[in-house]
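Why does residue order matter? Because the sequence determines the fold. Keep that principle in mind as you read this record.
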Amino acid sequence: RLSNSDFDIQWEVADTIDSQFLQTDPAAVEQILANLIDNSVKYASNASEKTIQICVTPEGKYLSIQVIDSG
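Structure:
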């Protein structure tokens, strides 16, 4: 759905993230992000500003991932 849209995606990833200590399933994270971005495109398709912002920041021993849209 994203490839057929005119949305702009902006990534903000904190410089303080040390990826060598991350324990995650990359395929699962990719699927989760794909679903969130797909929902953003789906529900914000009529918005005047077509921007999806993805922010990744450390929260203690976890990462916070936010997907923000205008819908």
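The mean pLDDT is 84.
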